[in-house]
Structure formats: structure tokens, C-alpha cells
Amino acid sequence: MTPEEMRDRTKAFAIRIVRVFQSLPKTSEAQVLGKQLLRCGTSVAANYRAVCRARSRPEFIAKLGIVLEEADESVFWMDLLIETGIVKTSKLEKLRTEAQELTSIFGAARHTSRFGK
């Protein structure tokens, strides 16, 4: 996958996160958990853009680590929304899978960047 394709993929992920947040119930619990998901889910795309602009290998690796953390955190907040009964599993299943895939991709990329193949 090219950097441009990954930029598009992470942006599409962020847009889906925004739509999930917009559809959440207006209860305080849903809004608190939803805002956490909104922050980290949209951060994946924003920070990936920063990865693409890295000026050095150490900066690239550090920024990639941030993207990895935010993608993994997105999985966590979706799990909480599901496990607390705020959102049905079926509503977040595909988005959660995408977050897990992004976490795997960025984890592997970071590992390769740090240690080689």
C-alpha cells in the first residue's frame, strides 16, 4: 500500500469514527466514551500525515509509534462502548476490525523500521 493509499485509508477511518460519534446516544456515559474514541480515532489520520512528513528515521519511528498507540486505543474505546451495552457489537464490528488491521499494519511497520526485516 502506498503512503497516499494509507493516507486515504486512515482518513476514511477517521470519517467513520466521526459518524459513529454522531450516532451515539446523548447519555453522559456514551458521550464521554465517544469523545475518547473520537479523539484517538481521528488522531490516527492526523498523525499518519505527520509520519509522511518526518524529517528523519528517528522522527518517522516516533510518529509511527503515536499512530500505533492511537489505533490500538481506538479498539479499546470501541470495546468499552460494546461491553457496556452502549453500542451493539454489530454496529462497530467492521470499524473495530479496521482499527485492529491498522494497529497490525502500523505495528509491523514500526518494528520493521526499528529492527529491519
How does the SSE layout of this entry go?
Blueprint: H1 3-23, H2 28-52, H3 57-83, H4 89-115
Please give a quick description of this structure.
The chain is an all-alpha fold. The chain contains 4 helices and no strands.
What attributes does this structure have?
single chain; 117 residues; mainly alpha; de novo design (two linked rop proteins); 4 helices; 0% strand; elongated
Structure description:
- The chain has one domain: de novo design (two linked rop proteins) (Up-down Bundle), CATH 1.20.1440.60.
- 85% of the residues lie in helices and 0% in strands.
- It has helices spanning 3-23, 28-52, 57-83, 89-115.
- The longest helix has 27 residues, at 57-83.
- The radius of gyration is 15 Å and the shape is elongated.
